[in-house]
Write a structure and sequence with these properties.
By secondary structure, the chain is mainly alpha-helical. The chain has one domain. It is 51% helix and 8% strand. The protein has a two-stranded antiparallel ribbon. The N and C termini lie far apart (50 Å). About 5% of the residues have low confidence.
Amino acid sequence: MTLRPGSLRSRRRAEAAPQDAPEPAVEVSWDDLTEAERTALKRLNRGFYPGLSQELGERLTGLGLAVARPDGIGISRAGRELVIDTLLKARLDDTNP
């Protein structure tokens, strides 16, 4: 099925899709984050995180690692990639003594 620009279905899909924050101007590494930021990203990677403070959510959003959505703060594509890459690297480090 092809969506025509301006069609009702394409407008609804665009309205429903979360708008990712622009990529951060400077790439953020796992080591650049505080322990609280790391914990929040790991929890956001699993889904909604009701314990996320507004201040921490704004900080992660400012870094491009989270996005503001109608239902709250969610992890961005860059944040998800950072978490997954970090977890995979830790797993590989554990299997290669």
